[in-house]
């Protein structure tokens, strides 16, 4: 089937749930204007909830204007990069929209990254402004002078909690000390370091102050892409607003101004960013924020603010269904649940829908598509085991992985290409990698091998790219291999994905040790923990005499994986 016939026929449109449009409206709003419109429509409604403390839409709008003015007084201007190194908290939402209001480019970071990982990203984007959780502010402040941001604004999460809870954290008992240590730390002092609270005390930015245009870059979201080390995907206001509109169109049963969305996904991840920071704010939802996923925190929140919409990943759904069965956690209010970032087992769907009575459907996307591009219809036509069909205003092709200009025959496996208003504009400062991934005409290569049924449902059957997806996060094998090879006892390494019992993937490594080495594999894992985020550390490390290689000496990761699987049998 050539790409004209597939994209023109669009057989998937017949599978859309009732009320879902084939196309979204033209994008006309930058993201801060979207938030402003929600504040006008739902001024008194709760926008954010954090440990029970609530912020109305009117108050959120005011805080964003004050923060934007404060950032402008520091020198933030259009096109400047503003790095966020924050867990989920109200300050994260305010900082995100305040920076965007000035036309700055937000750069999201995982606050649990190691110093080495964070430094690499700061070296790449060159941000001179950083808004940082006070627990990791020391790390950013210690960067070399040519990498360290000139302005570091430290955020204390406990400032967003109710006063009674803040006081409880100061009690001289071990439990309170442990809870406080998990949430906050003493911020460093030094050149260019200020408290974020002082920024929010500024006089509000005038509403007519100049801001960004639709096609300006709004966000750099770091991803390993289809190959290699992490790089910043450039996402515009148009990309992000379009994806939020596509999500809204996909769920015609949503009630604007009445939904409660649980922010259990990290806002620094593309999935959590879109469904919580943009989609939820765009529909006037109450966003209940959790600094980390914890069943106990969710159970407490359910009693005060029952959720109606839950975007998450399969392990979270599994843990919540177990809590519902074991402890009586009431999830019956969740009408919509959207799973993404990793494969959704059919068994997880069955358990969730039995416990809640609502629907759990799988979606598909990548950072380069803002991120959601496909989804299962929220209705009777959904098909568990597939990633669904293209979103409104989205078109797909299935091509020969070795020559993306050639479309494969209908029903045959091939690499998935995606086209739509949510497709990114390229990688920051990397024109060659951009050309490899973003094809002429705006088609993005996914690196995923799929089949498409006659009625348009897409099933992922393999990955041409060798990224490992664990816990919803992308892990570049090359990055983990570099960390392993840096150990003096390791001569070479190969990192692959191995299946886990729950249908997900885990990071695994084969290593060749120097002849005189005596290191134990667990000690090698401990070494990795000092250089990599926890989710990147190999769960299994296997010593080998040598690694399988091609005729030109390239390590054959597929053969490594096969050998490790055979050793498990």
UniProtKB/TrEMBL annotation:
<feature type="domain" description="AMP-binding enzyme C-terminal">
    <location>
        <begin position="479"/>
        <end position="554"/>
    </location>
</feature>
<dbReference type="InterPro" id="IPR042099">
    <property type="entry name" value="ANL_N_sf"/>
</dbReference>
<dbReference type="Pfam" id="PF13193">
    <property type="entry name" value="AMP-binding_C"/>
</dbReference>
<feature type="domain" description="AMP-dependent synthetase/ligase">
    <location>
        <begin position="36"/>
        <end position="428"/>
    </location>
</feature>
<dbReference type="InterPro" id="IPR000873">
    <property type="entry name" value="AMP-dep_synth/lig_dom"/>
</dbReference>
<dbReference type="Pfam" id="PF00501">
    <property type="entry name" value="AMP-binding"/>
</dbReference>
<keyword id="KW-0436">Ligase</keyword>
<dbReference type="InterPro" id="IPR020845">
    <property type="entry name" value="AMP-binding_CS"/>
</dbReference>
<dbReference type="InterPro" id="IPR045851">
    <property type="entry name" value="AMP-bd_C_sf"/>
</dbReference>
<protein>
    <submittedName>
        <fullName>Long-chain fatty acid--CoA ligase</fullName>
    </submittedName>
</protein>
<dbReference type="InterPro" id="IPR025110">
    <property type="entry name" value="AMP-bd_C"/>
</dbReference>
<dbReference type="InterPro" id="IPR050237">
    <property type="entry name" value="ATP-dep_AMP-bd_enzyme"/>
</dbReference>
<dbReference type="GO" id="GO:0016874">
    <property type="term" value="F:ligase activity"/>
</dbReference>
């Amino acid at each position: 089937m050539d790409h004209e016939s597939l994209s023109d026929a669009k057989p998937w449109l017949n599978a859309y749930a009732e009320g879902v449009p084939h196309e979204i409206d033209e994008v006309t709003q930058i993201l801060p204007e979207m938030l402003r419109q929600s504040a006008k429509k739902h001024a008194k409604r709760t926008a954010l909830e954090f440990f029970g403390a609530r912020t109305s839409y009117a108050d959120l709008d005011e805080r964003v204007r004050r923060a934007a003015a404060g950032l402008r007084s520091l020198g933030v201007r259009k096109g400047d990069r503003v790095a966020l190194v924050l867990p989920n908290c109200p300050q994260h939402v305010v900082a995100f929209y305040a920076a965007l209001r000035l036309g700055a480019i937000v750069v999201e970071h995982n606050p649990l990254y190691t110093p080495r990982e964070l430094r690499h990203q700061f070296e790449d984007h060159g941000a001179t402004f950083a808004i940082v959780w006070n627990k990791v502010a020391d790390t950013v402040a210690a960067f070399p002078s040519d990498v360290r941001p000139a302005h570091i604004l430290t955020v204390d999460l406990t400032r967003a909690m109710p006063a009674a809870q803040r006081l409880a954290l100061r009690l001289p008992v071990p439990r309170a000390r442990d809870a406080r240590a998990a949430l906050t730390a003493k911020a460093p002092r030094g050149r260019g370091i200020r408290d974020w609270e002082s920024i929010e005390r500024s006089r509000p930015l005038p509403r007519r102050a100049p801001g960004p245009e639709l096609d300006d870059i709004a966000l750099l979201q770091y991803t390993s892409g289809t190959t290699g080390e992490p790089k910043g995907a450039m996402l515009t206001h148009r990309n992000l607003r379009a994806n939020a509109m596509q999500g809204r169109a996909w769920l015609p049963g949503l009630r604007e101004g009445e939904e409660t969305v649980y922010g259990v996904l990290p806002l620094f991840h593309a999935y959590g960013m879109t469904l919580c920071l943009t989609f939820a704010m765009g529909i006037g939802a109450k966003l209940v924020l959790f600094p980390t996923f914890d069943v106990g925190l969710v159970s407490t929140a359910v009693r005060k603010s029952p959720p109606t919409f839950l975007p998450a990943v399969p392990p979270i759904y599994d843990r919540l269904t177990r809590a519902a069965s074991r402890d009586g956690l009431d999830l019956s209010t969740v009408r919509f649940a959207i799973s993404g970032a990793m494969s959704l087992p059919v068994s997880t769907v069955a358990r969730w829908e039995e416990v809640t009575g609502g629907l759990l459907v799988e979606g598909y996307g990548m950072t380069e598509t803002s991120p959601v591009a496909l989804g299962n219809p929220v209705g009777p036509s959904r098909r568990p085991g597939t990633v669904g069909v293209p979103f409104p205003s989205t078109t797909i092709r299935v091509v020969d992985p070795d020559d993306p200009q050639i479309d494969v025959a209908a029903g045959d496996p091939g690499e998935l290409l995606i086209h739509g208003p949510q497709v990114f504009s390229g990688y920051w400062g990397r024109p060659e990698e951009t050309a490899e991934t973003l094809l002429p005409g705006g088609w993005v290569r996914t690196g995923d091998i799929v089949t498409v049924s006659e009625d348009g449902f897409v099933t992922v059957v393999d990955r041409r790219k060798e990224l490992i997806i664990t816990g919803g996060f992308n892990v570049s094998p090359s990055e983990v291999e570099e960390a392993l090879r840096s150990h003096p006892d390791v001569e070479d390494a190969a990192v692959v994905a191995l299946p886990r019992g729950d249908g997900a993937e885990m990071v695994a490594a084969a290593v060749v040790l120097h002849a005189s080495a005596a290191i134990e594999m667990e000690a090698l894992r401990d070494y990795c923990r000092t250089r990599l985020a926890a989710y990147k550390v190999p769960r299994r490390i296997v010593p080998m005499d040598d690694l399988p290689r091609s005729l030109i000496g390239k390590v054959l990761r597929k053969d490594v994986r096969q050998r490790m699987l055979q050793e498990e049998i």
